[in-house]
Amino acid sequence: MKKVWPYLVLTFALVTGWGCNNNQRPLPSQEELMREDSLERLAHLEKPRTYGSVEEEMIMQLPYRTLPVTYEEGFERALPGFGDMPPTMVPSLLGVENLTRTKAIRLPDKDSIHVVIVGGEDAQGEPVVKMVTLTPKTWEPVDELTLYEQTEPEEDEFTDEEDLGAFRVEFSVTSRYEIYMQEVFQSYVDDSRQLEGVSVFSIGRDGRFFELENNKLNHGAEDD
Asked: Partners of 201 in the beta sheet?
């Protein structure tokens, strides 16, 4: 009788792929690769964030900036990296009123207090920059501090030509939230600058600004 088992073994190997290419699987098809790639991308998609309130959603979507932040010439007009914010929403969200052409940026939290800088123009079209603090959970405005503004002296304050100029407040914020405020007199005659005074502020645990003594943290002031 003729032996048929070698023929059966060869047929089984061809059908199943057993014994071929060192037991390697065949290459996947283009459709399989595309399906695998789609599933991989879906698995790594960031899940949509849920917000506790409309206020939190709008503020969290502002551009974020780390500290320190230091005033540079033209900062008040350019507001670099800031995001547009509808002026009609600024009073309700940040408690800042009477500003137009508003932009804002979100800073790191101070402990649990949220911090935002908002810039815009006042009724006279002059630039104003303010820092605003907000409550941890409800995102309600707590306090504000003017970081930049420029004021013109009254006419009766001019005694001679060298007094022609304007006062402006400039700022610098360290990574520890030491907020340096300096008042400068900018001369219109020779473009000279004269430092009039420096104050240093920080943010208390209640979200309110307080002035530091001797440029050091005054922990007692936080509890006032």
From this structure: 179, 211
What percentage of the chain's residues is helix, strand, coil (to nearest 5)?
Answer: 25, 35, 40
Amino acid at 16: T
Q: What string of pLDDT tens digits covers the 224 residues of the chain?
A: 555 545 444 444 444 455 545 556 677 677 776 667 666 665 665 556 677 788 888 899 999 999 999 888 889 899 999 999 988 889 989 999 989 999 999 999 999 999 999 999 998 899 999 999 999 989 999 999 999 887 655 555 545 555 677 777 778 999 999 999 888 787 777 767 777 788 899 999 999 999 997 645 444 344 44
Helix (H, G, I), strand (E, B) or coil at 157: helix
Q: Is the pTM of this model over 0.85?
A: no
Q: How far, in Å, CA of 144 to CA of 156, rounded?
A: 31
**Residue pair 177/145 in contact by the 8 Å Cβ criterion:** no
The CA distances from residue 177 to 58, 65, 70, 82, 211, in Å, are: 24, 13, 12, 19, 12
